[in-house]
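writing this on my phone so excuse typos. first protein, seq and then structure
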Amino acid sequence: MGAPEECRVNMNERKSNSHRQKGAEMKPEVFLPDDYRPAEDEPFMNERQLEYFRRKLTVWKEELLEQSAETLEGLQDSARNVPDIADRASEETDRALELRTRDRQRKLVAKIDSALRRIESGEYGYCEMTGEPISLKRLDARPIATMTLEAQERHERRERVHRDD
């Protein structure tokens, strides 16, 4: 009967140790001026660039989650019985469009989370196909990009060829 007590103590000890380790791993915050933009003349994916993209992705994710919450509220509010057939059809069409948009947003949030994980692992900004750096302009326009423009075009051409078969 003493073993379960001992296990609980060990589990609590492990939890507090892992918590301490996480705290020790926390990096100091990177100073980033409000007008900062990544530039080609600085080292690629330096701390400031990574922090710039981390913040950009985080703000984008928060906006999408906020919009999703508003969409859900709107769908709950519109879930009423409309007697007119034309009005009901119109409302159903609107609801279907909202749900499709919400699904797209959900997929986008997953891609943002993936990009944030790549920032943490040091893989962000490099093409997953070639390993080459993705241009800063491309990343600024589409921070979830995982391929250089050339690799993306090759990938899309290959997809098109296979789809046409």
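second protein below, same order as before
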Amino acid sequence: MTQEEFKLLFDNHFDSIRNYIYYRSRDEELATDIAQDSFMKLWEKNLDFDEKPLRALLYKIANDLFISKYRREKVAQKYLVKLEPAVDNYSPEDQLAYKELATKYETALEELSEKQRTVFLMSRMEGLKYQEIADRLELSVKAVEKRMSYALSFLRNALGK
């Protein structure tokens, strides 16, 4: 199939393929994406040009892509449901214990020296490595390690009480 033949096929059938998927999905962006992917897959097959069979093949490809997308989303939804913690699973005692621990944690963070708190939060909240913290604060890596060690030790003692 030449580029001109492909362009003719695209111009004649893109809207109908997109509408077909839109009617099934009610999602305009998804319909456009699948229609484009269908034409790309057809182009990659490098078939001889015969409009009627190619049109049928386009519908088949679009339908298969839609079903694959639907199945992937269904699996993803099942996975997300399993990941979400159910609030009902925690007893009132567990929720109270969590709130008390969170309060202790906040209080202990406030009691840390500013230098230790800064290093601790940069490491734990921002996910920075000791070298990155040292570069930002213009310190040696050993100084960062020492501050972090003191902060962790203090927090262990404060939360263990």
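The chain has two domains: 1-78, 91-160. thats all i got for now
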